């Protein structure tokens, strides 16, 4: 995936951050990279409607310029049920070929699960 | 770099349903919990809630504006989503320095709503580049 200039602008507008990018005019907001890497992973996992995000870890390795291609990968590292709620832990990465731009770990809760 | 600031103060953001819809489009996260009032009414939340990542973006914004490129080059954030944020809520991110050495600074970060409730708590570590 790549985050285009239009994608980055839409993200800035959505989060209300209209100031110039902290790291340069053509640098994608780091949370836009995170959202899009995670979006691709969540789509692959096919989470049900109503899944709730309970925790998030992020590590930014380097700035990502608009239009740069990122190879995204995701792994389900935990899938368990406690008291009727399923907890899924996903680890994700976005690599630009040379370096890891983003590492992320998401915990998602899905109510109404059976053991 | 000079000593890291003891505290970080962000700007207040009023979260609206229109903003949530924009975020859904921008991020691709169209979970009906955020967008569909009828669906959300049948959940424990009772009405649509903002995406956790939208609210977490306010914490990242605070750190990016405070530390610039350093935040994007090695910044780490560990966050818990504590309480839902509803359309109409006003949330503000802030940070308190908890540890620092020559290489990095660690902050306890909170995003609080208009009632003083922590909706997100987090620990952020920022590399301190010379």
Question: Would you mind describing this structure in some detail?
Answer:
The complex is a heterodimer of chains A (115) and B (130). Chain A is an alpha+beta fold and 115 residues long. Chain A has one domain: Thiol Ester Dehydrase, Chain A. Helices cover 23% and strands 38% of the residues of chain A. Chain A has 2 helices and 4 strands; from the N terminus they run H-H-E-E-E-E. Chain A has helices at residues 5-15, 30-45; strands at 52-60, 71-82, 85-95, 100-111. In chain A, strands 1-4-3-2 form a 4-stranded antiparallel beta sheet. In chain A, a hairpin with a 2-residue loop joins strand 2 and strand 3. Chain A starts with a helix and ends with a strand. The mean pLDDT of chain A is 88. With 130 residues, chain B is α+β, with helices and mostly antiparallel strands. Chain B has a single domain (7-127), classed as Thiol Ester Dehydrase, Chain A, CATH 3.10.129. Chain B contains 5 helices and 5 strands. Chain B has helices spanning 17-27, 32-35, 37-41, 52-67, 69-72; strands spanning 7-14, 76-81, 90-100, 104-112, 118-127. Chain B has a 5-stranded antiparallel beta sheet with strand order 1-3-4-5-2, covered by helices on one side. Chain B is elongated. At the A-B interface, helix 1, helix 2 and strand 1 of A face helix 1, helix 4, helix 5 and strand 2 of B.
Question: What's the SSE blueprint?
Answer:
The complex is a heterodimer of chains A (115) and B (130).
Chain A: H1 5-15, H2 30-45, E1 52-60, E2 71-82, E3 85-95, E4 100-111
Antiparallel strand pairs in A: 1-4, 2-3, 3-4
Chain B: E1 7-14, H1 17-27, H2 32-35, H3 37-41, H4 52-67, H5 69-72, E2 76-81, E3 90-100, E4 104-112, E5 118-127
CATH architecture of chain B: Roll
Shape of chain A: elongated
Number of strands of chain A: 4
The level 1 CATH classification of chain B is Alpha Beta
The rounded distance between the terminal residues' Cα atoms of chain A is: 36 Å
* Radius of gyration of chain A using CA atoms only: 15 Å
């Amino acid at each position: 995936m790549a985050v285009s200039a239009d994608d980055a602008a839409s993200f800035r507008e959505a989060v209300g951050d209209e100031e110039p990018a902290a790291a340069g005019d053509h640098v994608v907001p780091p949370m836009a990279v995170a959202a899009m890497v995670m979006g691709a992973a969540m789509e692959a996992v096919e989470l049900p409607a109503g899944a709730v995000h309970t925790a998030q870890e992020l590590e930014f390795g380097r700035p990502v310029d608009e239009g740069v291609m990122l190879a995204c990968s995701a792994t389900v590292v935990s899938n368990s049920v406690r008291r009727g709620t399923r907890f899924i832990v996903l680890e994700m990465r976005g690599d630009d070929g040379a370096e890891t731009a983003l590492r992320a770990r998401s915990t998602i809760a899905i109510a109404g699960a059976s053991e | 770099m000079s000593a890291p600031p003891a505290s970080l103060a962000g700007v207040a953001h009023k979260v609206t349903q229109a903003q949530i819809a924009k975020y859904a489009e921008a991020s691709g996260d169209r979970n009906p919990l955020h967008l569909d009032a009828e669906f959300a009414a049948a959940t424990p939340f009772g009405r649509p809630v903002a995406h956790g990542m939208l609210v977490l973006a306010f914490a990242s914004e605070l750190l990016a504006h405070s530390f610039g490129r350093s935040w994007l080059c090695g910044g780490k954030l560990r966050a818990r989503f504590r309480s839902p944020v509803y359309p109409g809520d006003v949330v503000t991110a802030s940070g308190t320095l908890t540890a620092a050495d020559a290489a990095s600074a660690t902050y306890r970060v909170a995003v609080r709503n208009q009632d003083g409730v922590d909706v997100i708590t987090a620990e952020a570590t920022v590399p301190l580049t010379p």
